[in-house]
Amino acid sequence: MIKQWFKSGEPWVWLNAAAVSANLILVVGLLALVAVRGLGHFWPAQVVEYGYKDKDGVATTIVGELVDTVVLSAQQAKDANYEILAGKDSLVQQLIKSGNRDTTGMDFRWIEQQRITGESYPVEILVVERREWGNFYGRLVAVKEQGKIIASGEQAWPVAEEKLQAALKLFDEIDTMQRKEVGAINYALERLRLKQKRLQLQNQWNDNTRQELAKQEADYQASYQKLQGELAKLNEKLALDSLVVKEASGQEVEIPFAKTVRIYKPNAMSVFAKIGHYGSKLIEFVSDDPREANTEGGIFPAIFGTVMMVMVMAVIVTPLGVVAAVYMREYAKQGFLTRLIRIAVNNLAGVPSIVYGVFGLGFFVYILGGNIDRLFFPESLPAPVFGTPGLLWSSLTLALLTLPVVIVSTEEGLSRIPKAIREGSLALGATKAETLWRTVLPMASPAIMTGLILAVARAAGEVAPLMLVGVVKLAPTLPLDGNFPYMHFDRKFMHLGFHIYDVGFQSPNVEAARPLVYATSLLLVLVIIGLNMSAISIRNHLREKYRALDN
Predict the structure, then answer these.
(1) pLDDT value at position 309?
(2) In angstroms, how far apart are the furthest CA atoms of the chain?
């Protein structure tokens, strides 16, 4: 009976099902862990106020958010030189996000639960999220305008909210002017400088061109000075207001609204208020620029850079992979050389990605980019244009990395098309090229899309080669903007994968960076899923269109 059961193959079916189920459970569990750790970071946590007595018996007050709790055994506490009070067989430590780094010198601190003398959650505790120095925890004392107190006590809170909204609008206006209008003028002035140098190199620099460029430069300088005057007025207006907050030690600190992102009282917030706060934090995370060494703010430049690089890579790798596969399957003589090429293509898929990065740096950046600069951008030398890592070279490097996947997938699709279809097309008078373009390639398009899906999935998560050929920690501008030629392939960019590496392993503030690592990892997975789902929907549409292939 058992022999027959094994011979039927049913045990192997169950074994495969168990393996697939285990993998699905692991994947879902990992994604759930990442989602809980990452998305939970944006929920406004309760702020606790502890009465605390240290080893020397000095009583202090600690205000902050409870982040983590660790239990140490008696032996572990002894090895770490901690003192356990009488009657205790373990030591409970709590990690508190105390903020106020500019006054205390640290954002987080570990405290011993056994030394806590009191615990409360005062509703008046204020959290000030700042553009610099992280969060500030304390009690609102007063609101100042031009250095004079205009509201204090209970009246200070509504005034502070009103002043903050006005300051945020001013900050956005200043930021927009600096990015768009001032940035456009600086870009135009740089192009004028390069144009002058190019004319000089071509021996076309004369009085007429000098006067023409001088007039244009004078116009730009006049516009620049006008904008600088407007910015100075806005910055002066932005710097007028501030709020005074008293921290746990009793020290009063004045915080300008110009350096403030938001203020809120988490202990006094209702559930709906917390949901609104949570939504605003999520929107900020996916739409704003990073700040505080990437440990605060948003990651929009990294999202944009990742999607843009993958799209450019897809545009490059798809025609290259399809042309190579078509030649080997439809035109090349099937012999030893063709088999050798196929073996080489399959082996390329196993080459470590860092090798592609080194190749991209050496060939694309230094050789190809350097020669492009010498031929087409001599006026920019010695400053490189394309002779430095950038979006184009990153996309080309990843296109080479994923090229074998597209070639193999396309060849498999071409091999599945019956020979009779080709012969029927030729019998009706079509040429081989027409047969290939109008019949064979459309029917193989689902396989081509499958290869593209696999290429996108791999390219979007690669980090090692990008560290050499274009990705940076902070990019001053996006590769796409309103300045001609609008798409700047020579610019460096940010990437979600490198952002995770930088925040997780290079951040000076590890505890603050940890939840952002989870949140960014989840977002990278969602971006990859979104790109793949878009390609899958196109593939399914093509499969329905050419269903005759499967019949």
Answers:
(1) 94
(2) 102
